[in-house]
Backbone:
């Protein structure tokens, strides 16, 4: 039978933390050591977490967030090198893109695509068709190796591009150029 005093503590230790009768070993004094070990472990885990933040932090380049007018302006260089403030269109979409930034880029691309599709529907061999094709090719390029980022955007862009009559050589040339270097 275990002896407890009237306050419910073991034995006669005034701290209430004495070992119960028959217990071998002394736990007194080990509490501060355990607390130190826990503090050091927590510090190490925090340092590891902080050190990995810089490696994976790839925020969206500022040029990618410039809007649809900037995208349309850049597309005027198609089928040559197309960049918004020095950033290729496909580089604006990646697995590490923040959800809000991805939405902002997507809206700009969709608005540009809608305007280009309006023009290309009436002139399937014109500059708008070539630029729309380039934009689609660049988004396809960003999907290569990605884990779904940009897939929905690509689907919506293809829906816009469906207004361009099938067989448009300008659209195909732009899409090829965007896939290769966009």
Residues:
């Amino acid at each position: 039978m275990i002896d407890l005093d009237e306050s419910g503590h073991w034995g006669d230790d005034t701290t209430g933390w004495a070992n119960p009768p028959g217990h071998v070993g002394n736990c007194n004094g080990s509490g501060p050591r355990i607390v130190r070990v826990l503090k050091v472990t927590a510090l190490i885990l925090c340092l590891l977490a902080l050190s990995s933040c810089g490696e994976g932090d790839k925020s969206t380049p500022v040029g990618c967030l410039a809007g649809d007018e900037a995208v349309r302006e850049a597309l005027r260089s198609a089928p040559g090198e197309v960049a918004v403030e020095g950033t290729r269109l496909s580089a604006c979409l990646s697995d590490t893109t923040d959800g809000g930034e991805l939405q902002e880029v997507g809206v700009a691309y969709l608005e540009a695509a809608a305007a280009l599709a309006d023009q290309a529907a009436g002139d399937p061999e014109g500059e708008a068709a070539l630029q729309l094709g380039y934009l689609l090719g660049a988004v396809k390029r960003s999907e290569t190796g990605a884990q779904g980022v940009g897939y929905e955007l690509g689907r919506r862009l293809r829906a816009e591009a469906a207004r361009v009559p099938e067989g448009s050589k300008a659209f195909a040339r732009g899409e090829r150029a965007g896939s290769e270097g966009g």
User: Anything to note?
Assistant: The beta strands are 83-84, 87-88. The chain has a mean pLDDT of 77.
